[in-house]
Amino acid sequence: MQKGALLYGNHLHHLDHLAPLCHFLKIPLIIHDEKIYRLAQQQYVEVKFLYVPSTEVISFVMKEFESIISCFPRIVFEKEFLPYCPLKTLRTIWCPHGFSDKGIDTYLKKALAAERTILTYGNKGKKLLRDVAEKVLIVGNYRLGYFQKFSCFYEKIVQKMLPLNSRKKIVFFAPTWDYQNSLFSFGPSLLHSIPHEYHIVIKPHPNTFLHQDGWKIWSLEGQKNITLLEDFAPIYPLLQYSDIYCGDGSSIGYDFLHFNRPMFFFSDKISVHPSPLMTCGTLITPAHQNRLFFLMRKNMQTDRQKFSKIRRSLYNEVFAPPKELKKYVCF
Question: In which domain, by residue range, is 29 found?
């Protein structure tokens, strides 16, 4: 019986969390979506991918594997697998798909109630989830470690995607998809008045396209000074070449902390108790959205002085250094 990981469903954003982990653990990643399987082979190296058709994936996993890592909690496995076969013999381990302030108490803890083992990036996650599972293993920022290991491979890819040789500042815009989504509230102001010295990279959350207005984002495709990325899963190669981050509650904001560069957060209101992430940069409300680039220029002059220590401190809380996972994660 083998140990492996499973990317269940058509959730492309799970790929960047499972593929690097599989590389370091030297385990296969099972994929049953043909498009994701094809993209995985193009975008990740030294990872063993197994394609299994959707009609066979459940029986294949139950027959061949004793332990499976997934970004889905066990309650999802029980719902999907039980109609076909008992799940008692399969050990599942939950892997986060990013660190986020969203829904930890209202959703995440309830969803993980059936877990025996969960993975987390660092001490902050372990403190938040220590009462949820029998084991909470800190795995460090293995995604960053994977990118650094294969940085030459990714540099060649990103050079074809972004205008790295120009003098434009690259602004990475990562809107989330739920009630904090800034794409439809702040996006028009950001994307339709771009000064010539900026280039905007938009990485929408896949669930954006479930929104009734999600299709409108395609009107931006091909527009000057905008790169729209839907099918590129790796995040750190893009952040490496981004000068500025714009976002809301997206977990990508936590990933960007590593680079300690200017950050701007869109919010419909100023909160008395903002999320930890939103203390790491300049907050922009609807009252200022018509002056976005003016505020960027103005605040970038004092950004490092105001926020550098805060960003570094929060990053170290959330992410432990990369570990030798093959020895550390025994399952």
Answer: 2-148+320-328
